[in-house]
Structures are given as C-alpha cells and as structure tokens.
Specification:
With 207 residues, the protein is an alpha+beta fold. Helices cover 42% and strands 15% of the residues. The chain has 9 helices and 8 strands. The strands form 3 sheets. It has a 3-stranded antiparallel sheet, with helices on both faces. The termini are far apart.
Length: 207
C-alpha cells in the first residue's frame, strides 16, 4: 500500500540516491507516484526526465558514472541481468589502456530492444557468478570479461595480453580458473587465450 506523500518521497530518495539520483518511473509508480505526479514534479524542477521512463532527482549531485547508470536503467528487463562487458568492462576493471568509443553491454538473449546510440549490445544469459554490482549498474567479473575478450577477434591480441597480465598480477583471476573456464569456449577462442597466456609467461606471470 502506498504511504503518505512524505513516505513516498523518502522511499524514492533511498532508491535513487544510491545511483546518483536516477530512477525508473516504474519504480516510482510501485511506491505510489502517478504519471500526473511525475509530470508536476518535472514542471516544478524537482525531477528531470532524462530518457523514456527514466528520471533523475534534480537536487542530487551528478555521479561520475552518469552514462553507465542511465544505460543500465534503460536496459533493465524481466529476463535477466544486463551488465557492461567486453571493452567497457576491461576499462572499468582497469585491465586495459583502451579508450572505447562505444559502451559494450551484455543483455539477455530474449532482450528485444534496439541499442541506443553509442551502445553495442551482446546477447548472452549471464549467471550470478558472471557479474559484479557497482553503484547503479552491473559489470561482468574479470574472469567473465577475459573470456568474452578471448572470444572477440576485434580486440587485438596485445590488448588481451595486457588484460591477462594485469588480472593475474593483481590476483583478480588465476591461471587455473582461466584454463578451467576456457573449456566452454570455442576452439578459436581457446587458441587466442592460450597464445596470450604463453606470450606473458616469460614476464614471470604464473598462477
């Protein structure tokens, strides 16, 4: 049951402030806000409409990951988690000096929306162990990210090598876990991963 106006405001603030003030109208509706109430708050400057069905509390300080949070809210769906992956995940984990010109997001196979400008969608049904939670969005784990990169021929071998070296040296993954997880990859992806691991062995990286 929706509470009083002040109760509703507090509940919305608790939801939105954890992600830089962003929220979906569906979340506001579930705690008692109507479309009319949303329109009034936008007119009064209390809320900002930043996308279809996506709002932001105007008083909240803009978060550094504003684009990631907004895209994550757009990608929310009933079929499973959507998480930043591939080159974007490499950057978020500090495993590459690549500067991606697009955001890479893995969404469930049943996800039917077209990608917005500047976003590349990859379709896969992620498991709970494949993802990590950040403030307002999800990112694939270092292990899952490295496996995705191994499967992606568009990423140059040297960037895979850099990412592996960083992940192994920082203890984010182990060679044994990589080798065990790589059994599910295609033969081409396994070869890419084996070559990259072999390339960094002389540098003393063993795990």
């Amino acid at each position: 049951m929706p509470g009083t106006r002040s109760d509703r405001e507090r509940r919305l603030y608790r939801i939105a402030l954890n992600r830089g003030g962003f929220f979906r109208f569906e979340e506001a509706r579930k705690i008692g806000f109507s479309r009319r109430a949303a329109s009034h708050r936008v007119q009064r400057g209390e809320w900002e409409r930043v996308g279809k069905g996506i709002y932001r509390l105007a008083f909240a300080p803009p978060p550094p990951d504003e684009d990631l949070i907004r895209i994550a809210l757009w990608a929310k769906n009933p079929w499973g988690p959507a998480a930043f992956s591939h080159e974007t995940a490499l950057s978020l984990h500090g495993l590459s000096d690549l500067i991606p010109d697009r955001y890479h997001l893995t969404v469930p196979r049943r996800f039917g929306r077209k990608s917005p400008k500047g976003v590349t969608l990859h379709r896969a049904d992620l498991l709970p162990g494949d993802i990590e939670e950040r403030a307002g969005y999800l990112v694939t784990t270092p292990l899952r990210t490295l496996l995705d990169v191994a499967k992606s021929p568009r990423i140059a071998p040297e960037h895979l090598e850099i990412a592996l070296r960083q992940a192994l040296s920082r203890g984010l993954v182990t060679r044994r876990r990589l080798e065990r997880a790589s059994e599910k990859l295609s033969e081409a992806a396994r070869r890419r991963l084996r070559r990259a691991l072999a390339a960094i062995e002389p540098k003393g990286i063993r795990a």
